[in-house]
Amino acid sequence: MFSEKMIDDTTLRDGMQMPGIRAPSPEERLKIAQYLDDIGIERIEIFGTWYDIDRKTAQLILSAGLKCRIAVWVRTDTKDIDDAMRLEGLKEVGISHPISDIHLEHKMNITREECLDRISKTVQYAIDHGLKVFQHGEDCTRADWEFEKQVVEMLVEHHADCYRVCDTVGVGVPSHISPDISMCKSIPDKIRYLSQYDIEIEAHFHDDLGNSVTNTLVALQNGAKWASTTMLGMGERSGNAETEKVLMNLRYHYGVDKYNPQLLTEACRYISKTMDIRIPWNKALVGVNAFTHQSGIHTDGVIKHPETYEFIDPVDVGNERRLLVGPYSGKSVIIFKIKTIVPNVDEKDTRVAMVVDYLQNNLFGSGIRKSALTDEEFRQVLRVFALIS
């Protein structure tokens, strides 16, 4: 079942809306799209009608011969559909419109009836012009449930391809309905109900409360066909569910092996560089510390058998294992690091014991040094104790 689930990466649309980032060039955006395609992402959502640079980028990507589907994001306006259709090779659009009363009243200043009319006319216009359509139900986790069902039923009547469940401010929860949790916020119950309709369901969840990845997986478990995600969780405010996390959860827990995760770290670092985003050291899977070990208990376990503290081999995601010597490091990692530099050293050599004692009881134990040693600094310690010249 899970092998049929698909990922719709929106790094080049929702990710581009992340505050404070550097907007990459069309050529850089194309390379990001190529990374996503090589990883095996099934659909990429992009801007294509907003600025000249968006139109240029969209045409570059559409003309690049990628294997994945390409969808252009548009507003619920037939003029946007006309603009999108000027792109050669375009076959698919994502049409966005809010459906919560909060948005309809305070942002759009329209009624629910006017909302339905706008969506109906734009969706039908796009379909009449031969485009695949997935409709975004913006802010649906704060919408009226009966009204959301009306929206979906109307989309089914128009034969739209997909309905995107948008948890726009991240208030959806992976729990069943209860006196505290309404149907609109209950991700498993909402998705399971909507999956009964003759339309594909896509999960697009923001991370304002930290639930985006869990909610995405729960949605896939309960009938959603698509996961809408971004690399590094880029996006508005606190971002979205991370593509790399959802992909690796699918691989590790459900045996989905159709993707190429070995490109994940390289792709994330390219995005980090081109968009001027700092990847946190402890970022899951792709962060520099994701497979880095320093404390005595952990380094001892990893040296003896990596699986003790690593659920996958770091090369599976294009990352690498690092062992550091720093505060709370044990004897085994110090000796291990010595042996990587001096392979034939005897562990009983008094110089080895002196290095261990110096590091544990003097340098780190006294608080003189508060951070881990770099490789060159470790080498310098070995020089002081005449283990290397």
Provide the CATH topology of the largest domain.
TIM Barrel
Structural class: alpha/beta
Mean pLDDT across residues:
97
What's the count of strands? 10
Describe this structure as you would to a colleague:
The protein has an eight-stranded parallel barrel, surrounded by eight helices. Strands 9-10 form a two-stranded parallel sheet. The longest helix has 17 residues, at 112-128. Helix 5 (112-128) packs parallel to helix 6, helix 7 (187-194) packs parallel to helix 8 and helix 12 (331-341) crosses helix 13. Helix content is 40%, strand content 13%. With 389 residues, the chain is of the alpha/beta class. The chain is elongated, with a radius of gyration of 25 Å. The protein has helices spanning 26-39, 52-62, 78-85, 101-108, 112-128, 145-157, 187-194, 212-221, 243-254, 264-275, 296-304, 331-341, 350-363, 375-384; strands at residues 6-9, 43-46, 69-75, 92-98, 132-138, 162-167, 200-205, 226-229, 292-293, 322-323. It has 14 helices and ten strands.
